[in-house]
Design goal:
It is built from five helices and five strands, in the order H-H-H-E-E-E-E-E-H-H. By secondary structure, it is α+β, with helices and mostly antiparallel strands. It has a single domain, classed as Zincin-like (2-Layer Sandwich), CATH 3.30.2010. A hairpin with a 2-residue loop joins strand 2 and strand 3. Helix 4 crosses helix 5. The longest helix is centred in the N-terminal third of the chain and has 23 residues. It starts with a helix and ends in a 5-residue tail after the last helix. Bound molecules: zinc ion. The site of zinc ion has 3 residues, from helix 4.
Length: 169
């Protein structure tokens, strides 16, 4: 294998990209969008919702509203009634996946049932997952980031939750 100047420059560019992506992700701690009363109302309704049908319609409405407020593309919600995907190690749950979103996807997927017992997720857990995946969407569309779980990412998630009144319940 040869390692020429072009490979070297590609390597440097990739390292610089990774570093600037990380720095931007980590230093952006606020989600600077106006929050409407409608968005707050939908949040409070979601925090009282139990059924998959209610969560689907309220979740869709909240995602539409947030897309409008942030002026980014709409992302849809797909709630699955199956249990969370999980892996076990020595008989214990070692990893659970609540939901996912891939850059450029038109969908956020959320499993509405707990991994082992298959119970409906607590409202706060459901909404936390929804907003977590939405923050990835926001990072990708609004901030132009390869969205990673930096401390800044979690600060943005906390910021949007505070603004929506998530912690008031
Ligand atoms: Zn994530």
């Amino acid at each position: 294998m040869t390692f020429d100047f072009k490979d070297f420059m590609n390597f440097i560019n990739f390292q610089l990209f990774k570093q600037s992506n990380y720095e931007k992700s980590n230093s952006t701690t606020k989600i600077k969008i106006p929050i409407s009363d409608e968005a707050k109302k939908l949040t409070s309704l979601l925090l009282k919702s139990q059924t998959e049908t209610d969560r689907q319609s309220l979740g869709d409405e909240l995602l539409d509203e947030l897309a409008d407020l942030a002026q980014i593309d709409i992302v849809n919600l797909k709630i699955s009634e199956t249990k969370q995907y999980h892996k076990k190690r020595n008989g214990k749950v070692a990893m659970k996946r609540y939901g996912y979103y891939k850059p450029g996807d038109k969908y956020i997927y959320i499993s509405n049932r707990t991994a082992v017992r298959g119970q409906i997720l607590a409202p706060k857990t459901f909404l936390d997952t929804l907003l977590h995946e939405w923050t990835h969407h926001y990072d990708y569309q609004k901030l132009g980031l390869n969205s990673i779980h930096s401390a800044g990412f979690y600060a943005r998630l906390k910021d949007i939750k505070e603004k929506l009144g998530y912690f008031a319940y």
